[in-house]
Amino acid sequence: MLWVSPSHQRQGVGNALINQVENVLKNKHARLLIVETSSLHDFSAARDFYSKQGFIKEARIRHYYGIDEDKIIFTKNMKK
């Protein structure tokens, strides 16, 4: 789970965390990174963040977390 305290958001912390994860995975020759988040409005910043990090919106599983709360799945090709 990746979560950055609101007082530390927009300071590059999330970017640094994702970069660290990607570096570890690349060293292990991983080919795909998968992340998930909620479809709720409160998670719109997370969805925007993943898109800006080069993740592609891959899938939506409707009502996964609850009624009218979908799971949004993003992927990133690690071989680029």
Automatic annotation (TrEMBL):
Superkingdom to which the source organism belongs: Bacteria
Matches recorded under Pfam families: Acetyltransf_7
InterPro entries xrefs: Acyl_CoA_acyltransferase, GNAT_dom
Region forming the signal peptide: none
CDD domains: NAT_SF (cd04301)
N-acetyltransferase domain mapped to chain residues: 2-56
Protein name (Swiss-Prot/TrEMBL): N-acetyltransferase domain-containing protein
Organism: Pseudocitrobacter corydidari
